Amino acid sequence: MKKIYQQLFAGIVLSTLSGLSIAAETDPLVGKWKTVDDRTGYSRADVEIRKKADGSYEGIIVTTRNVPGTEKMGVCYNCPGELKNKPFIGLPFIWDFKQDPKNPREFQNGKVLDPIGGKIYKGKARLSASGKHLTLRGYVGVSVIGRSVTWIKY
């Protein structure tokens, strides 16, 4: 009888764990993204986007690269508040993005940190139909006054 309970418990644990991984895989925003600088065309960092318990999305920097001919920056010297002088690795880069209930490929009301300049912008994002490209827009005031970049999922 003890063996039956052990097998039953193991089955429940495995099905729960596989259910969690399936949920993460079905959320196309969750995962690692390669950022591409719109001005230079170079990838400056890799970001990992996670879904938080409150349903919002957050992205942290997991890898940084320098543009050829420049030094690799490792610390956010220009960042505001508690982010000042924090290492880029592990730094929250985007946060508070919420999925648009009317369009599940769009995310809104987020914040975007420019770790080089240290400014925080309003943000919105849109996933491509394939889920492999994310167009992220940071802006001041209204969306027209801003800049868009495209990230590639891997």
Automatic annotation (TrEMBL):
Q: Where is the DUF2147 domain?
A: 31-152
Keyword set, alphabetical order: Signal
Signal peptide residue numbers? 1-23
Q: Which Pfam families match?
A: DUF2147 (PF09917)
- Tell me which Gene3D superfamilies the record gives: 2.40.128.520
- Protein's UniProt keywords contain Signal: yes
Q: What is this protein called?
A: Signal peptidase
The organism encoding this protein is Acinetobacter amyesii
